[in-house]
Amino acid sequence: MERVTIDDLAARLGLSRASVSYALNGRPGVAEQTRMRVLALASELGWQPSVSARSLSRSRADAFGMVLIRRPEDLGAEPYYMALMSGIESALSDAGTSLMIRFVTDADSEAGVYRRWTAERRVDGVILTDLRLEDPRPALLEKLSLPYLVHSGALTERGWHFDNDAEALILVDHLAGLGHTRIAHISGPTDLVHEVERRQAVQQGADRHHMSAVTVEGGYSLDRAHDLTAELIGVPDAPTAFIYSSDLMAIGGQAALQQAGRDDVSVVSWDDSMLCRAARPGITALQRDPYQAGLRTATQLLEAVRRPGDAAVRPVVPHPSQLVVRDSSRRLP
Fold it and tell me: Where is the HTH lacI-type domain (predicted)?
């Protein structure tokens, strides 16, 4: 069934297009009896306003955008991102705003999407994730005059951030309290600002407790974390505890330990999720509430778009993360 248009209503009623438009939008210039005729027919035929026309008239697209450098099929395997997206969608849905997601393979393609969205007026603002070292995206978005906020593990003036120093200390203090003196940190990509901060914070926490610490990059990959863990437990003076920068990597690392029969080695994850809860043994993890992070980030961007210059640069600081202790972290004999 074709969509009913204002022209269709005008033809059926024998009115001008302008009169029908005025009646539908509650504007003066038409008699009340005429307005009632227009509204009655619009309801009967199921007329709906054109989203693109309405957005153009208000100079807003009623949509926000996110561009992710990853494969679409990989997103479902990342509980953190799924919860984050749910929070964003919840805030935007309540505001009648859509979320446009694009998956790209590299940074140049990502920049191209932002330029195209701006030229076509497709979005009112964007949410950035995974802030990188010397990241060119904020400068590009400033140049395009496209409002944005950052969801990042690193401190930023534009959006949500986590306290990596405090979180690292929670994890390291927990392991130190269990008697561990040799730990390993399997990190995410080393070009991400929050991963750089995590590496430094873990080392500082280890130094504070006179522990030895080694950090290697696992790329948020289950398989990579599995292989790295298998390698590290085979070296002299091997770590007795592992900190993983994601729940997925913690699952891979714990599998490697189980395959090697090493139930004496502790595992903790920087992110909690259903994966950590369902694992056997359950994995000790930080509850960081990505749903709430997405909700508050999207809410602030909505305010920034509605009131330009007022809310755009206020950082959002979350409640402190909480450690959920499960059976994967054990006291040394």
Answer: 4-58
Rounded CA-CA distance 161/192 in Å is 13
The CATH number assigned to the domain with range 63-161+291-306 reads 3.40.50.2300
- pLDDT tens-digit series, residues 56-87: 445 678 899 999 998 888 888 889 999 999 99
Cα gap 66→152, rounded to integer Å: 13
Distances, alpha carbon 95 to alpha carbons 88, 98, 124, in Å: 11, 9, 13
What does the DSSP assignment read for 249-291? HHHHHHHHHHHTT-TTSEEEESS--HHHHHSSSPPEEEE--HH
Say whether domain 6-49 belongs to CATH 3.30.1360.60: no
- Indicate the CATH number for domain 164-288: 3.40.50.2300
Nearest-angstrom CA–CA distance, 314 and 299:
12
Q: Where do the domains of the chain lie?
A: 6-49, 63-161+291-306, 164-288
How far is 136 from 24, CA to CA, in rounded Å? Answer: 45
Q: Which of 242, 180, 240, 182 is nearest to 216 (CA)?
A: 242
Q: Would the pTM of this model clear 0.85, i.e. be above it? A: no
20-61 confidence digits (pLDDT tens)? 887 887 766 778 888 888 888 888 888 776 655 555 445 678
For the four alpha carbons of 237, 241, 243 and 247, in that order, the dihedral sign comes to positive
Q: Which of 242, 192, 245 is nearest to 70 (CA)?
A: 192
